[in-house]
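Repro:
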Amino acid sequence: MKAWGNAGALATLLLIAVAIVVAYLVIPPFPFWGAVRLGLVYAFVGLGVYLSFRVLDFPDLTVDGSFPLGAAVVATMLVAGVNPWLATLAAMLAGGAAGLVTAFLNVRFRILHLLASILTMTALFSINLRIMGAPNVSLLRQETIFTPFSGVRIDNVDVTPLIVLSVLVLAALGVLIWFLNTDFGLGIRATGANPRMARSQGVKTNANIYAGMALSNGLVGLAGALFAQTTTYADATSGRGTIVIGLAAVIVGETLFRFRGMWAALVGCVIGAVLYYLARQTALDLGQPGELLDWLEPSDLSLITAVIVALALILPRLRIGWRR
């Protein structure tokens, strides 16, 4: 069964890769590519939130602080002339360190996980300002991980970020699917499923919490670094609402992918993040003057977000009711 699951995961990744290539070659660039690009960035947030909320059963709000932390670290290092890949790795490690702080407060001092994550998130706002030295940092003239690959154009539109992000997302999916099926990964899953039973079997649950939280927020920090390099700026408030977007990606993915298996859940998080941003972009486009939803205002973006998440939560219940 394990071999079959790994084969199914590999087949799914290959199908996604083929679909991405076909989309780039067949579908001309249009405004929705911007939404797809952001969806791929926030796919890392969805993966991180899935690890903490679903795998570890650890409600974690640290992501609202670790996301701008990753952006702050990578922006500061890029301005200082550090190699973009090293700066991105440092941002990921910084996010992982933030997750370790939350895990330390919870495991060592028995502080409630929600409160521990809120404390870390609150502290990170000041830390991010300290790192950047200003509320925001511009990266317009800085070299990023996308710079060496620039020049790939379709109809005079640079699609380099889309291609690079797609490769990174596929790589992250492959590594996570492999890791969560190793003995250590299975221990993390057992810690979230039944910690008392896991301890009775000799599993070091505290160490697994540290590792899971570090990996979760490391992915979120990576997302923040990619967001800063994609949008060419880092802002101390860019993490506001990150947890909502991550949960939306997880919920939408679980709604669409009802298959059993860790690989299906992880793939669902990625697709859920992209679909979430496509839905939001559609609502914004329909809110333009003369369109169907022209009564919407730009300030209604938070309302649109809440409606999308609410629909993702309601639809599975409606489907169960229809079956009955």
